[in-house]
Amino acid sequence: MRRADEKGEGVTQQPIPHWPGRMLGPVFVRSTPEGAPERAVYVHGLAGSATNWTDLMDELKDVATGYALDLPGAGFSPAPADGDYTVDGHARAVIGLLAAVGPAHLFGNSLGGAVAVRVAALRPDLVRSLTLISPALPDLLPRYGPARIAAAAATPRLGEWVADRLRFVPAEQRVNATFNMVWADARRIHPDRLSQAVEELRRRDDLPYAGRAMIASARGIVAEYFRRGAGSLWNQAARIAAPTLIVYGRHDRLVRPAMAAKAGRTFRRARLFLLAHAGHVAQMEHPALVAAEARRLIGETRLGNAPLAS
Fold first, then answer.
1. Is 229 left (phi over 0), alpha (psi -120 to 50) or beta?
2. Does the CA dihedral 187-193-198-200 come out positive or negative?
3. Domain boundaries, the chain
4. Per-residue pLDDT tens for 24-37?
5. What is the pTM of this model?
6. I need a labelling partner for 115 at 20 to 30 A (CA). Which of 133, 136, 181, 248 fits?
7. Angle at 271 (CA atoms; ends 266, 277), nearest 5 degrees
8. How is domain 2-303 classified at the CATH fold level?
């Protein structure tokens, strides 16, 4: 396992604009300019959106044209016609995007990591490499905060009631609480990014399906904890042949960094990378460091000599 001792002090530099996007089939997709030798598809986590990948896409735009989708019901993507917010439903949306753009290097964070594992297991022909950042894979010892959220989401009607009540909490308060949960040091977030997140949350508050999308997606993750047999995420992970980079943050409050040991034993061609001063969204906190490891993996994949482990 490689470790990085990056520092987390001060506010980040002036952020770049979010990448432009358009509807591509049933989902909204943001993309970098065409012309790079490879393609990459990015899948965000619960309550996130394609903009979670803005900075990492910028770091990698010379080696991979990036396509970051808003999962069904998230960001600017409408609610799915079939109302399916399970991991399987989200995986179908990602497979649809991959089928449209061609085989790509697949990235996933949190819920998006779980979705990416399922995609890579079901459609290995579409996945050239896999990069997982704090993937939400089943853990028998979930952290206390996430366990409470999961319990609320899984309880009939309670999840919807909580989501509805949250709309009365000021957007600024909710955004700050979220960033304090998923970043190791929220002081590093640029004020422009905070303002953008607040405006986006206010926009989503006016969407009739927004609360349902979040709660149902959370239930989809909870359901994966109880899935057994060949279709379970860990069993699928063991079958993935694509070279895989798995990134954990030592200060992750949602996914236990200790899960790196199990991931290293399970994935067939895995490299582990631990960021000492990162939380749950390392691609947002330290995009240059994550990009360096991803660039290394993409280069090795192109040469056909990605290592089995390191």
1. left
2. negative
3. 2-303
4. 999 999 999 999 99
5. 0.93
6. 181
7. 110
8. Rossmann fold (3.40.50)
